[in-house]
Amino acid sequence: MALNSEQSIALTQWFLIPVLTGWTIAFAPPYSKIRPALIAIAIGLACSFQLQVHQAFSSTPARGPLAAMCWVNVLNAIDLIMLSRVSYDAQVSWEMKSAQRRMVKSTSQWRRSVWCIGLTLNYRRINTPWQIRAVPAFVKDKLGYVPDRWVFLRNCMLNVGGSLLVLHFFAIEADDPHLPKFISELSGSRMVLLPAGEKWTARRLIIQSLFMVSFGFLFRAAILGMYNLLAMVCVILGVHRPIDWPPIFGSTADMSSLTRVWGIAWHQMFRKPVISNAEFLLFSVLRLPRGLFSKTLRLIITFFTSGIIHLLMDLGFGVSADQSGALWFFCLHIPGIMLEDLVRFTCHRMIKQVNPHWRLLIGYIWVSLFFLWSAPVWLNPIILRLYHSGQKLPSPFLMFESSWLFS
């Protein structure tokens, strides 16, 4: 599909943010005066893109993720350029002390540019001195294992194929004749957080659960499929090696607490851009001492920022700021995680006496109930917007055709 002029301008602005960020860390010294100016330019480009994205991409759901990732790239630029002070020379120095020595063997200007622009999309800083800690292993029980090229490509193909199947079967057309009676059970109100006020019934609870599960499958499949497709292309072209593309998600078996959901099981792409900016504010600007108070503030800032990012994604979908529940959903995790920490602190002896299998089961039930309560305030406005605009949306029939179930 050919891009019109509005789309071309918007996408150019989007891509300029990582490109300018990459060129800055490639050629500007760590403390160059040029670096702050590039941050101002990146923010200006993001604001311009945000104002155009809904109009320019009104016919595609991609406008939502594009809007969100635009601002993630701004936070990423702030970290790379001003906080971590990333530079190509620092990477070369690090590799000289390690076993890789890839950059040392190729120090051309082209290689410098390619690596630095690639790093702007390497949100977890894989194979750099700035790599985050929470990177999943290729095989959970074999730390340090890296598959060979053909095994890696085979796994990528399976992940891409599986993701495409999920995206096909778990999405439904808005004109499906059986859909209206399910959509009518969804509430776009914030009162959905008060089940008593919304008069929840068993039917509504089941339908809400089905939409939530379907949305989760689609969201995960979209990220997993795109990540593995990019990994496959980069490894085939010889730009990267399998070690540069560790799994994007942790194991779903680790989803036994909210802390583990967001810290291990879910993707960690936003971790470095969001947390580094939060820590800069707390420890460099406000100069707070490290401790329980600053840890709590970091938790609040991190989830508030995540909520803002996903609010901007909702705006891209066409959900207005007053209708979006993204900020509510992510901020509700703050008291949820604080409650988990309190229970661990006060009941740790009792918890240790519980059978590990029962602990996991209780954890899974807790996480499921928390998401069933908190997710609708964010997901329902998106689903309703997609439905009323005639676009595909998460299916309450999961992977089944509605005609099969109602024939």
Write the layout of secondary structure elements.
Blueprint: H1 5-27, H2 34-56, H3 63-83, H4 88-96, H5 102-105, H6 109-119, H7 149-169, E1 171-172, H8 180-183, H9 202-236, H10 258-265, H11 271-285, H12 292-317, H13 326-353, H14 356-374, H15 376-388, E2 393-394, H16 402-405
Antiparallel strand pairs: 1-2
Tell me what you see in this structure.
The protein has 407 residues and is mainly α. It has a domain at 1-131. Helices cover 65% and strands 1% of the residues. It has 16 helices and 2 strands. A two-stranded antiparallel ribbon has the order 1-2. Helix 1 (5-27) runs antiparallel to helix 2 (34-56), helix 1 crosses helix 6 and helix 12 crosses helix 13 (326-353). The longest helix has 35 residues, at 202-236. The chain starts with a helix and ends with a helix. The model has no long low-confidence stretch (mean pLDDT 88).
Overall morphology = globular
Strand order of the largest sheet: 1-2
The level of helicity is: 55-70%
**Which spans of ≥5 residues are poorly predicted at pLDDT below 50?**
none
Total beta-strand segments: 2
Q: Could you give the distance between the termini?
A: 37 Å
Largest sheet: 2 strands, antiparallel
Helix and strand element order: HHHHHHHEHHHHHHHHEH
Q: What structural category do the secondary elements indicate?
A: mainly alpha
Q: Would you tell me the overall average pLDDT?
A: 88
* Radius of gyration using CA atoms only: 22 Å
